[in-house]
Amino acid sequence: MVDVNKATIGGHSDAIRALVKLLAEGDSRARKEAITALYSLCFYDDNKKRAVMAGTVPLLVGGLINSAGVPDDTLERPLGVLNMLATVVEGRTAIGNHWGIMGTLVRLLKQGTSRSREHAVAILSSLCCNSKQRATEAREAGALEHCRQLLDDGTMRSK
């Protein structure tokens, strides 16, 4: 999708809200397509803020927290969207305010696919570099141990 199109689509007052509604109420295929569309639209910075304001974060974080037993590869795209949203203040705040997110990200560092681990470490980095409280929470959840392990056996991207 061309950047101009991302701006135009995201700027339409109901576009991102409709995708979030689909994410909340759609069947599994509709949710997957909504996540893919949000992922693409969120490459444009203004759309990240719109996605946060539309309620994307609680849906994605809730899905991750309740993801035990879900195939790891299905978590990669939602983590990718959260990774992008974590690059803006509004996104970091919304993600970090969810109870259980640090423990979930640490679990994904330990058990996720290589791509999921890359996204999880990037989200943790965004949260922790901008908040001492979040850094303490991550440390208490065991993030340091798993980040050290990524240095040894992770992908170049996760390092």
TrEMBL record:
A Pfam family the protein falls into: ARM_PUB
Listed SUPFAM superfamilies: ARM repeat
Coiled-coil features, chain-numbered ranges: none
Domain (U-box) ranges: 9-145
Alphabetized PANTHER family for the sequence: U BOX DOMAIN-CONTAINING (PTHR23315), U-BOX DOMAIN-CONTAINING PROTEIN 8 (PTHR23315:SF112)
Keywords from the UniProt entry: Ubl conjugation pathway
Protein's recorded name: U-box domain-containing protein
InterPro entries per UniProt: ARM-like (IPR011989), ARM-type_fold (IPR016024), ARM_PUB (IPR058678)
